[in-house]
Amino acid sequence: MTELWYVVGFALAGVAFVFLVIGVSWLITHRNRGDGHKGRPYESGIETYGDTWGRFGLSFYIYALLFVAFDIEVVFIYLWAISFRALLLDGFVAMLIFVAILLVGLGYAWRKGVLTWR
Amino acid sequence: MTTDARTPNPHAALDDPSIFIEDVLRESIVEAVPVGRTERQAEFYTLRDGEMLLNMGPQHPSTHGVLRVVLKIDGERVVDIDPVIGYLHRGVEKLCENADYHQAICYTDPLEYVSSLFCEWAPVMAFEKLLDVTVPRRAEYIRVLATELNRVASHALTMGWFALDLGGLTPVLYSFIERDEIMEMLTALTGQKLLFNYMRIGGVNGDLNHEFMSRLGDWMSHAARHIEANQGLLNENEILVRRARGLGVLDEETALRMAVTGPNLRASGIPFDVRRAHPYSVFPELDFDIPTRREGDCLARYLLRIDEVKQSLRIIDQCLHQLPDGPVMARVPRLVRPRPGRAFAAVEGPRGLYAAYVISDGTDQPFRMRIHDPSFVHLQLVGLMTPGNLVADTMAIMASLDPVMGGVDK
Amino acid sequence: MAVSDRALDPVGGSGAPDDARAVSFTEAATDVVEAIVVPNTLWTPVDPAAYGPGTAGLNADITHLREFEASGAARRDDARWSGALEIVPTKADYLLDLIRANSLWPLLSGLACCAIEMMSTATSRNDIDRWGMFPFRASPRQADVLIVAGTLTTKMAEPLLRLWEEMPEPKWCVAMGDCTCSGGRFKRSYSTVEGIDRIMPVDVYVPGCPPRPEGLIFGMMKLQKLVVDRRGHWPDRKVGPTVPAGL
Amino acid sequence: MDRALRARLERRFAERLTGPVHQRHDETEIRIRPADVGEVLRSLHDEPELDFRLLADLCGVDTGDRMQVVYHLWSATTADWLRVVADGLDRESPRVPSATFIWKGAEWMEREAYDMFGIVFEGNRDLRRIYMPDDYASFPLRKDFHLADDASRSPGLGVRPMEEAGAPVDATPATLLRRSGAERA
Q: Is B87 on the interface with C (CB under 8 A)?
């Protein structure tokens, strides 16, 4: 039963942390809005030319996909690294297989020429 | 061409709840792309679909000073580029027309502020031609010694900024150590840290002193070793070499057509160096060679500057050994009134041919003082070399051309 | 060194300069030096006709900070509630000033020769990272201090002003170099703004052409003292140009 | 002071020179009409015995009553700098053919001459202001554009202290012409 309290405690702490930080910063920061320029988009000091809500190329999307894939991999490795001492050899081999599979994915992407910017 | 964006925003301050945030921001996003008055402007500011105009504006980590570059980009690829300068235009030529001949040196000093001894030497040499003054040999040797030191300091900075623009943060610290040591040495000689104001019409301000000689001795002992260490840090660095090789290639014919001079020209294979092509001062007596490379890409320009530093060390060594005795200042009247006439004097600066063209009309103020700065001409190469590369490569190309905005904007 | 306008100092009276005494929080900073005003009889500003009639040589959209301060909209730095709770921001600022003073992040922007000296101040020989000022933030949204280093020209005045306004409060401005403080050796040119305090508020003036890194470091320490001595009195800071009258 | 260069120039451009070839120290100066700029520069650049391949500098000059455009060239065949002066542009609408068809690098130097003097270079693809903001009304380096406190308006009686208290003496047209008159025509 106590495990349940741990989970609830962690959830509450997470939510409280987020709102605490935003609340305190809203409480003590300045409300000086400045004149029209404060809200203007920053482009090294010059007005932006044309409409900056334009469409972006496909290659950005592919890069984002690759990044997400390998970022999630890092999350799993991180969890594994914490309990590495308890997992002994079989845990190590399991992680090697996991990483190998992902490297195959990277190799495929590399061979397909996705990494060179088009 | 004052667009409506110039008038202050008619809306009340942003916190007026009645205004929905999107409206104000959309209102402020300016549709007013500048109207194309000249042929080049019209061609640049017509956007095909998928293209976007991006400002790498006057305040940007990688533009060396206040250079603004308008990029027309399609995703990550740069389609076209239009450098906009003038953000540091201080009107030096007009000020020199209202200043005495001695004071004109003060105005030209902060032009190419990274190598300010060269910015003094060109006008001073032009005034000496107008006055037909012969500078004593000791002063000429001290001038060559001081300017070569300034060249080493300037090239050290260039190497640091080149690595910084390619992403390396620590080489800047190494290059500033080297540069600060030389600056302290030149401060001991001239009395000022960055804008030396050391050269006078007819010679130099003061003779060599012990403080300068001892610091020079210490520095010369470990200068070659430091350069080797800095090179080891950068030359074999795989990232820098792969990014810089083959980027922004400048062939011989285009370099001559674009009136390029200095390291950027010599990196394309043409051994034009004003010290050899049009010898001035005591350079005919000094023996040094002009390093040239054939590839003409960013890496060649970077490596060429390291070779030039080695040549400068050789020149400094020879100057110290052949330093004659004698006065350091010729007899020049306090009130300088040269004959009516014109004089053109060119000096080989760290960035190229730095020249001063002076017209005098017999009064004590120059009638017209024209300063030719090499970086001003080299910035046109950015518009030539960047289209087709990625956005990140524009920094590498601009860093390899190494513009100094004080000289570009005069 | 720190020529700050009378209006900046909430507590009047000019006590003895207290550099010798340790910084104590109890009594206000009273070493405000009377601004030395030299009436300008030598020259009119830049050729007035160049920027169109009636703008006294300065572009219309560089001087809008003066109108913005006159319009009073800048003064509304109040909290969303009133009464007892209103003291929260000022008391918080009172505490946070110490933290702000020791982590002043400058904006990565240099105009001319002083920028090289500013870089030299930031690198390892004389290092301002020792006082927490190192990360030169590239975007004004993350910067605290705007160190203006170099000659300000009329073409660059508008971008510089935009950068200044896009910086979040509390923000300070250090004018580094003679050209920035008062136009310097290019004062009589047709295209320079004679001193940035004609268009924006300046807290610390660092003279020198270029000022040695030690000079800039001394200026930044004066700024730290200014921040700590201000003790949270933010609402009445000047928003518009702080040029002494008559210059 | 390269006598051979002087002879070659006089032989090659006998009828196009509007004045004698001046030589002093290490500079040689020839003066041509603005209309001949394109043809003279082309022959200086292309002919092998002249071979002036490098354009060192291009600048505008306002001599009070007329305008000039000055080109400085370098060649391996001579030890001198060659200065080509396109003289006689009238002040109201100075026009001269552009040098960008030989040296594309002259584009920005011509833009600067246009920005500072108003000299229009026909054939330059991109002739707009380079230093001053686009809506700037006047051309700063012309002789009729005076700085706020213009010491040059006062006759150069000696080394005048720049910052003399009191109003500066206004430039009478006479002082302007006296200065330009002193300069060799």
A: yes
Residue among B12, B94, B110 whose CB faces C112 most closely? B110
* Among the ranges given (B297-306, C23-32, C78-87, C89-98), the one the predictor scored with the smallest mean pLDDT: C23-32
How far apart are the C-alpha atoms of B163 and C164, rounded to whole Å?
A: 29
Residue D160 at interface with chain C, using a CB cutoff of 8 Å: no
| Cβ atoms C124, B176 nearer than 8 A | yes
Q: Which residue of D has its CA nearest to C46?
A: D148
pLDDT at C21: 44
Mean pLDDT of C165-172: 85
* Per-residue three-class SS string for chain C: CCCCCHHHCCCCCCCCCCCCCCCCCCCCCCCCCCCCCCCCCCCCCCCHHHHCCCCCCCCHHHCHHHHHHHCCHHHCCCCCCCHHHHHHHHHHHHHHHHHHHCCCCEECCCCCHHHHHHHHHHCCCCCHHHHCCCCCECCHHHCCEEEEECCCEHHHHHHHHHHHHHCCCCCEEEEECHHHHHCHHHCCCCCECCCHHHCCCCCEEECCCCCCHHHHHHHHHHHHHHHHHHCCCCCCCCCCCCCCCCC
- Cβ proximity of B330 and B136 under 8 Å: yes
- How many contacts, defined by CB atoms under 8 Å, are there between B and D? 142
d(CA B183, CA B125): 23
Q: Would C56 be classed as within a structural domain? A: yes
Q: What is the mean pLDDT of chain C?
A: 75
3-class state of residue D158 by DSSP: coil
Any bridge partners for residue C147, and if so which? C174
- Would you state the pLDDT for residue C61? 65
ipTM over 0.90: no
Counting residues of chain B whose pLDDT is more than 70, the rounded percentage is 91
The answer to whether B28 contacts A39, with C-beta atoms less than 8 Å apart, is yes
Q: Do A44 and B13 touch (CB under 8 A)?
A: no
What's the mean pLDDT in B78-92?
Answer: 92
On whether both D163 and D73 belong to a single domain, the answer is no
Residue D179 belongs to what domain range?
146-185
At C235, the pLDDT band (50, 70, 90 cuts) reads low
β-partners of residue C177 are none
In this complex, do A27 and C93 lie within 8 Å of one another by their Cβ atoms? no
Are D151 and D127 in a shared domain? Answer: no
Is the domain of D75 the same as that of D131? yes
The answer on pLDDT for B258 being more than 70 is: yes
Task: Give the CATH number for residue C169.
Answer: 3.40.50.12280
By residue range, what is the domain housing residue C202?
49-230
Residues D40 and D82 in one domain: yes
pLDDT higher at B8 or B364: B364
User: Which residues from C are below 8 Å from A48, CB to CB?
Assistant: none
pLDDT digits (tens, 9 = 90+) for C133-153: 988 988 999 998 999 999 998
Q: What is the pTM of this model?
A: 0.84
Amino acid identity, position B316: I
Tell if the CB–CB gap between D109 and B334 is shorter than 8 Å: no
A70-74, B107-111, D18-22, D168-172: the lowest-pLDDT one = D168-172
Residue B173 and residue C124: Cβ atoms within 8 Å? yes
pLDDT at position B8 is 44
Domains located in chain B, CATH noted: 4-84 (no CATH), 92-409 (1.10.645.10)
